[in-house]
Specification:
Layout (H helix, E strand, L loop, with lengths): L9 E4 L4 H6 L6 H13 L4 E6 L2 H8 L4 H11 L5 E5 L12 H13 L4 E4 L10 H9 L3 E7 L8 H13 L4 E5 L7 H14 L4 E4 L7 H10 L4 E4 L13 H8 L10 H20 L13 H5 L3 H13 L6 H14 L9 H14 L9 H7 L12 H6 L20 H7 L7 H9 L4 H9 L15 H12 L1
Parallel strand pairs: 1-2, 1-8, 2-3, 3-4, 4-5, 5-6, 6-7, 7-8
Helix pairs in contact: 2-4, 2-11, 2-21, 5-6, 7-8, 8-9, 13-15, 14-15
Bound molecules: cobalt (II) ion.
């Protein structure tokens, strides 16, 4: 095999988003990011993934941080690097479908507050769920990275993804991403897929994988040989395992080759020194379970993505049923087949995962369904890739004629005005309205804390997560 491209390989570093989402339940704080921003900004990455995905929810739910404020401060601290976010099509960052005007408002506000590139995906690869976000990202001047959720099934072969890429290019994608959230794409298949994609579409190809199954570095090397334009890696302190392969290792591997990234390893080592202390802190506070660092070849059998593995561990821990870990892992592919082989990515990974947990813990398959599980079987998330097991659908109480076949968002009336009215009393901005619309359980508590009277600090030092304290730290750091 030979290098099919001689352009420098470009790198997106995920240290500020997917790395800690995958390894440490999304618990990295802004205060842990800002001190490294100056050096990160000087490295010359194609982009830094730093927002979206689970970070928005985690900011408010666990860290007492305003996600919009986080974005604005990252934007200021990273003036030379494109900032990238992960966006779940019509779900935005939430777990249900939102009306087109909410999708539009969210794209607009993301770009206004500092995002350059929006990676838009749909868990089911139903392109009708990407259309509005693609249109809105373009409208507000953002770069559209349309992503294909990679998976393996009787339906998902190479030809399927090549066809899908062509379709996304025609929809206006500026970049096409192969989003392999579970590290299922094997190195030789990556070579073959990237080669085909490069022959078929003319926009850059961006590959995203994890190192869950231990093949991530090899996948990137083979993809680089086949001409992939951009890959996602994470700085070493939060790399590997359920996170991305390490940036430094790939950069060193390609030095002196046709795909030399021309990035500076010394600067990376400086940034890594900072994130090593952050990783230690996350470990000490219990957010980073060392289990996620193991190479898990079970993923190749069960097709369970990294983030889902750590969620599963904590779900079972809470129920006191950690002994059922492997039973649940074995149940997941059975549920997946019954549901028409959805790729396992948010939110379908949570839906299929929770259904599998219930099937095992209750001791009877499909005794109960969550609301979301029923919604998926009813087609509310879009078209499932394959045929659904009709007896399971019947157990969920859904008659065949109740299944939705149109674009699900076509059934939704505009919602922004309604949300504005509903949250008139507590929202201080359009950004707040969006936070409340997406996370109605979490955002009110956060905003009450943010805007309410603060308890006088018990110690001389204010708590780290106080927005004022974070701002102060930023000012000190810049000064
Ligand atoms: Co990922």
């Amino acid at each position: 095999m030979e290098f099919l491209s001689n352009k420098p390989l470009q790198i997106t570093d995920t240290i500020l988003r997917d790395a800690h989402q995958s390894q440490a339940a999304t618990r990295m704080r802004l205060a842990d990011m800002l001190p490294a921003c100056e050096v990160l900004d000087s490295i010359g990455y194609w982009s830094l993934e730093c927002w979206g995905g689970a970070t928005f929810d985690a900011c408010m739910r666990f860290l007492n941080e305003d996600p919009w404020e986080r974005l604005r401060l990252l934007r200021k601290a990273l003036p030379h690097t494109k900032l990238q976010m992960l966006f779940r099509g019509q779900n935005i960052l939430g777990y249900k479908h939102y009306a087109d005007d909410v999708v539009d408002a969210f794209c607009r506000k993301s770009i206004e507050n500092g995002i350059d590139i929006i990676r838009i995906f749909d868990a089911l690869n139903d392109v009708r769920n990407l259309e509005q976000a693609i249109r809105s990202t373009k409208k507000y001047g953002g770069i559209v990275e349309a992503a294909m959720s990679y998976t393996i099934s009787p339906i998902h072969d190479e030809a399927y993804f090549v066809r899908l890429a062509k379709e996304l290019e025609q929809l206006g994608a500026d970049v096409i991403c192969v989003k392999d959230m579970a590290n299922l794409l094997l190195p030789m298949d990556a070579y073959s897929l990237v080669k085909k994609l490069k022959e078929t579409v003319s926009v850059p190809i961006h590959l995203h994988t994890h190192n869950t199954t231990g093949t991530g570095d090899m996948v990137y090397l083979m993809a680089a040989m086949a001409g992939v334009d951009i890959v996602d890696t994470a700085l070493s302190p939060l790399a590997n395992g359920t996170s991305q392969p390490a940036t430094e290792s790939l950069v060193a591997t390609l030095q002196g080759t046709a795909r030399d990234t021309r990035l500076d390893l010394t600067k990376m080592s400086e940034a890594a020194a900072h994130f090593r202390t952050v990783a230690k802190k996350l470990k000490d506070e219990g957010s980073l379970d060392p289990k996620v660092l193991n190479v898990d070849t079970n993923t190749l059998l069960y097709q369970v993505p990294g983030g889902m593995l750590s969620n599963l561990i904590s779900q079972l821990k809470q129920a006191g049923r950690e002994d059922k870990y492997y039973d649940v892992l074995a149940e997941i592919p059975r549920v997946r087949a019954d549901y028409g082989y959805p790729p396992l990515v948010t939110p379908s990974s949570q839906i299929v995962g929770s259904q599998a947990v219930m099937n095992i813990i209750s001791g009877e398959r499909y005794k109960t369904f969550t609301k979301e599980s029923k919604a998926m079987l009813r087609g509310e998330y879009g078209k499932l890739p394959g045929a659904v097991n009709e007896s399971v659908r019947a157990k969920a109480g859904i008659a065949p004629e109740e299944v939705i076949t149109c674009r699900p968002a076509d059934l939704l009336e505009p919602e922004v005005a309604k949300y504005r009215e509903e949250f008139r009393e507590i929202a201080k901005s359009d950004e707040d309205v969006l936070s409340l619309a997406l996370f109605p359980q979490v955002a009110p508590k956060f905003l009450a804390w943010r805007d309410g009277p603060k308890e006088p600090p018990k110690t001389a030092e204010p708590p780290k997560d106080d927005p004022a304290a974070v701002r102060k730290l930023y000012v000190e750091y810049k000064g």
